[in-house]
Specification:
The structure holds two protein chains of two kinds. Chain A is an all-beta fold. In chain A, β5 and β6 form a beta hairpin. The relative contact order of chain A is 0.33. Chain A is globular, with a radius of gyration of 13 Å. The model of chain A has no long low-confidence stretch (mean pLDDT 93). By secondary structure, chain B is an all-beta fold. Helix content of chain B is 0%, strand content 52%. Chain B has no helices and eleven strands. The chains are: A mainly beta, B mainly beta. Chains A and B meet through β5, β9 and β10 of A and β5, β9 and β10 of B.
Chain lengths: 117, 113
């Protein structure tokens, strides 16, 4: 498709289970970002990749969160041993350019709504 | 952590009225972007400002970046129902990749016919 695609759109899981959220960026986009958005708040940075290399993971809340982008395209955000506080909208965004001083445009996906019971 | 504070949190106006949304921080940003988000969708970029004092116009929307690059405003003239949405400002720190953005909590704008 033409836009950033995320799956699943909705995920309900029980506390303690692992979840994997997938992001398929716009074709050819170099950079891929993961953000988390709580209800009534703006997105919060989690991590980002240039091609397959994870450049910054300083926003990941703890070591239960990990992300990969093995072939420089599709990315997976994995949350192990989920907790209720992990419930949120997880948004992926991609951009044509890599990091650095140039200011470009982030294209956001529709998000994956995670609910941990 | 650089905090971006947006005000007001909520704004409800009649079609044809003007409105201004503010985004303030105590920190300097290398760039500042404004996004609009509609229910069930991701944020969509409206504008990027990078120079202190810069003013950009996008049809009925006027964006301004403060001289010190710590604050910004969005002004909408003669608002229309299609302007309804969550307006988010997002700043890029000088030491970070531009895409690592600090977002404000947003201003919900409702324009009624």
């Amino acid at each position: 498709g033409a836009g950033v695609s995320q799956s699943p759109r909705y995920k309900v899981t029980k506390r303690g289970q692992d979840v994997a959220l997938r992001c398929d960026p716009i074709s050819g986009h170099v950079s891929l970002y993961w953000y988390r958005q709580a209800l009534g708040q703006g997105p919060e940075f989690l991590t980002y990749f240039n091609y397959e290399a994870q450049q910054d993971k300083s926003g990941l809340p703890n070591d239960r969160f990990s992300a990969e982008r093995p072939e420089g395209s599709i990315s997976t955000l994995t949350i192990q041993r989920t907790e209720q506080r992990d419930s949120a909208m997880y948004r992926c965004a991609s951009s044509r350019t890599s990091g650095g001083a140039f200011t470009g445009e982030l294209f956001f996906g529709e998000g994956s709504r995670l609910t941990v019971l | 952590t650089q905090l971006l504070e947006q005000s007001p949190q909520f704004l409800s106006i009649q079609e044809g009225e003007n409105l201004t949304v503010y985004c303030n921080s105590s920190s300097v940003f290398s760039s500042l972007q404004w996004y609009r988000q509609e229910p069930g969708e991701g944020p969509v970029l409206l504008v990027t400002v990078v120079t202190g004092g810069e003013v950009k116009k996008l049809k009925r929307l006027t964006f301004q970046f403060g001289d010190a690059r710590k604050d910004s405003s969005l002004h909408i003239t003669a608002a229309q129902p299609g302007d309804t949405g969550l307006y988010l400002c997002a700043g890029g720190a000088e030491t970070d990749s531009w895409g690592k953005l600090q977002f404000g909590a947003g201003t919900q704008v409702v324009v009624t016919p």
